[in-house]
Amino acid sequence: MTDKLVVALLFGGRSSEHSISCATAAGVLAAIDRARYDVIPIGITADGAFTLQPDDAARFALNTEELPTVEDNATRVHWPENASSHELTVTEGGVTRSLGRVDIVFPILHGPWGEDGTVQGMLELVDLPYVGSGVLASSLGMDKHFTKSVLQQAGIPVAPWRTVTAYEWRTDPDAVRAAAAELGLPSFVKPARAGSSVGVSKVKEAADLDAAIEIAFAEDDRILIESGLVGREVEIAVLGGRPGEATRASVAGEIVISGRDFYDFAAKYLDAPGIDLVCPADLNAEELATMQALATTAFDAIGGEGLARVDFFLTADGFVVNELNTMPGFTPISMFPRCWQESGLSYPALIDELISVALARA
Hints:
Structural class: alpha+beta
CATH topology of the largest domain: D-amino Acid Aminotransferase, Chain A, domain 1
Oligomer: single chain
Helix content: 25-40%
CATH architecture of the largest domain: 2-Layer Sandwich
């Protein structure tokens, strides 16, 4: 019998999506096959300290009354000192001990300082294999402006947009307002580099634009103003293949909005009413095939690896890609695993597949 693989599960982090990453960790800790893997839970505190956390799914489960966080327990996890050791150590109570050799890192981090290529770059420096996209694709996928630019170049329809810097807004706000007016109403104002709908506003009246811009700038120094599209909100999950294998796409899911302006943070994670997640979505065979082809093309266009969720609007003129998420929500009830479950791949099997693909590509 072969030894079990050692997986360093990396979660938490400095971004505004810290708690969502913790909830994702809870899902993985509960579902990962303990007969195949030993897990080292490494939580990153809100101020960036790498800590050794308890292997306890319940500790990090999503609670709408109190969102989970990584508490600073005074431990400090240290990454390998060179590219050949793959050994982690931890300091606790003034004593440093080995955590052993790590086979792969599973960085289930959302937002800046984790999903954006920064942690991926750190892992590359010490030659640790990891799940998910590399530095470039992670950076592209995190930045909505550059994602749209690359997808547009690849011939994939995206919503019209205008990117605005903090400098532009401060020095010439009238020009920004004029550009927003050209995009029409309703529109969406978003931080360029944030997820889980943090900092996103739907603008239905011109008088609401300034406030929406300020909310977005609280998250990033670049924001996007996008034309609001009329259509069904549908999503598809993507898995990268092993070397020489094609990218795969799941069945589609749909976000049905009945009592909210859009699929915001509260609806995604705090069980707010007015949203239904339907999977599989009611699409005919031709629509699903078109959507799957666009999703895999988008994933390949940014150089994606591992996994992604591609979000669409199905408008009267066809599919339009809204966003591409290289580390999507991964709680057991999130759309990414749910789409794969409906495609025949269970949550534990999905974790296995992601680890297997990452090791094959390492």
